[in-house]
Amino acid sequence: MSESKAKELIKKRVSVKAKITQFSSYLNVVRSSAQLSELQITELTVRLSKIENFYSIYDTLQSDLEMIADDPDELYAEREQFESQYYNVTAAAQLLVEKHRASKPIQPEASSLDARTSVTNAQNYVRLPKIDLPHFCGDYHKWLEFRDTFNSLIHSNKDIDNINKFHYLRSSLQGSAALVIKNLDFTGDNYTGAWELLYERYNNNRLLINNHVQDLFNLPVIHRESSRALRELIDTTNKNLRALSTLNQKTEHWDILIIHMMSPNWITSQKRMGRTQKYTFHRTNTT
C-alpha cells in the first residue's frame, strides 16, 4: 500500500476521532444541566446512536494501518487510547439516559374518589427503563457474559422489585434457556426460583472450561492475509482467555501454549506473526 494511501487512512481516522471528541464535549454540557428535559434526552439518544456507528469505521481504518506499519506498537497504543475514550463516553451517555428513564414514574389518571389508591399504585408501578441485555438461548459459550451482565444490571439491583426482575429475565431468554423457566407462574415470588434454575443448569464450571479450551483448539484458519480475519482471530482468542480467567484458570502463564496453538492458524510472514502475538498477549494479560 502506498504512502499516500496511508496518509489518506490517517486523515479519515482523525475525522472519526474528532467526532468522538465533539460528542464528549456535548455530553459534558448535558451532564452539567441540573435537570434534563425530554428534548435533551431524545437528542442525546439520537446522537449516541450515531456515534456508535463510528467505532466500526475506526476499527477498519486502524486495522488497515496496523497491517502495513513497520512498527505497529505505537498504533496499538493509539487503539487502546481511542477505545478507552469511546467506551467511557458511550457508557456515560447510556447511563445518563437510563437514569432519566428510571426516574420517570407513570402518572395514572385518577378521580378524587380513588385518589388514595392511585397514589399507592403509582408508588409501586414505575415505567421500566429500557436496558439492553444480551439474549441467552442456552449456548454455554454465552452464559458467562449473560450471567455477569444480568447479575450486575438486574439481579443485584435493589431498586428493581422481583416481578420486574422476572420480566427482564423472561425477555432475555430464548430457545432452550426459556424452556427452563417456562412452567413457572409469572409472579414476584417465583423470580428467585427462576434465576436459581438457570444458574444450576448452566453454571457448570467444568463444562464451561472445556468449551472455551476447545474453542482455542479450534481457532479459525486464515488462508490469506486479511486485517479483518486477523482481528477476528485475536478477538476470539482473547474472548476465550478472558472467559477462562473468569473461571479461575491461570491464563496469564499460558503464553507459550497459546502461541503454539495460534501459529498454524494464519499464513503470514514470521515477522508480522511475532508482532501480532505480542499484541495478543499484551491485551490478554492486561484485561
Give the fraction of residues assigned to helices. Answer: 55-70%
The global form is flat
The structural class is: mainly alpha
Discrete helix count = 12
InterPro entries: DUF1759
Commentary on this structure:
- By secondary structure, the protein is mainly α.
- The protein folds into three domains: 3-102; 131-202; 205-285, no CATH class.
- Helix content is 69%, strand content 0%.
- The chain has helices at residues 3-31, 38-68, 73-102, 115-124, 143-155, 162-172, 175-180, 191-202, 205-217, 227-246, 255-262, 270-285.
- The chain is flat and about 65 Å long.
- The model is unreliable at 106-126 and 276-284 (pLDDT under 50).
Question: Can you summarize this structure?
Answer:
InterPro entries: DUF1759. This protein is 69% helix and 0% strand.
Which helices and strands occur, and which strands form pairs?
Blueprint: H1 3-31, H2 38-68, H3 73-102, H4 115-124, H5 143-155, H6 162-172, H7 175-180, H8 191-202, H9 205-217, H10 227-246, H11 255-262, H12 270-285
Keywords:
single chain; mainly alpha; 3 domains; DUF1759
